[in-house]
Design a protein that fits this description.
This protein is α+β, with helices and mostly antiparallel strands. The chain has helices at about 30-35, 55-60, 85-100; strands at about 5-10, 15-20, 40-45, 70-75, 80-85, 110. Mean pLDDT is about 75; it is low at about 1-5.
Length: about 190
């Protein structure tokens, strides 16, 4: 999720307020393409000192851009490094600055972000599993979850009528018994 950063600087202290953004958003395709080609949230203004730019003048020139927070402006040799809060806002700020007459003759380019480093990777060592170490999982009845009375026998055992050996219904004409369940109906 994106963060909203507000920087309040005074002569002695630097206060940074970090909050979650009010709205979530997806990165647009054109912004993703710009990031893939080297755009970042940091801008380098070449020849800024020769053109008379100061930290205060750069902050004032970018003040009108909605949700843009200029985190830091530092000068290196003749150039100004401007750190902002997001790539979206830096893209817009660069376009805006290039359209102003005060920045004519200044090359404005993106500088690699100091946070743009790969994340450390954990080493994953494969564990050798031998055939004897593998035990087949025990077969379970998937309907055991439906057994609410806690008995191990199924409910179909309760519905069976016990087989009576003396009953004439179980004999066939040749005197042999039919193995299986006796079906005695109430109306017979």
């Amino acid at each position: 999720m994106p963060l909203r950063v507000r920087v309040n600087s005074s002569a002695n202290a630097l206060q940074i307020d970090v909050r979650w953004a009010e709205r979530q958003f997806r990165m647009n395709g054109h912004v993703a393409d710009k990031v893939a080609t080297g755009s970042s949230r940091n801008l380098l203004i070449h020849n800024a000192v020769d053109r008379g730019h100061t930290e205060q003048s750069i902050r004032e020139d970018m003040e009108h851009i909605h949700n843009l927070v200029v985190i830091d402006v530092t000068f290196r040799q003749n150039n100004a490094l401007v750190c902002t809060n997001s790539v979206h806002n830096a893209l817009y700020a660069r376009t805006c600055m290039m359209s102003r007459s005060a920045y004519r003759g200044c090359k404005i380019e993106f500088v690699r972000d100091e946070c743009d480093v790969p994340l450390p990777q954990r080493k994953i060592t494969p564990v050798a599993i031998t055939a004897s170490a593998r035990k087949p999982a025990p077969m379970k009845n998937r309907f055991d979850l439906l057994n609410i009375d806690g008995t191990e026998d199924g409910s179909d055992d309760e519905n069976r009528v016990p087989w009576d050996e003396g009953s004439d219904d179980d004999r066939t004409m040749d005197g042999h018994r039919n193995p299986g369940v006796n079906l005695n109906f109430l109306d017979s």
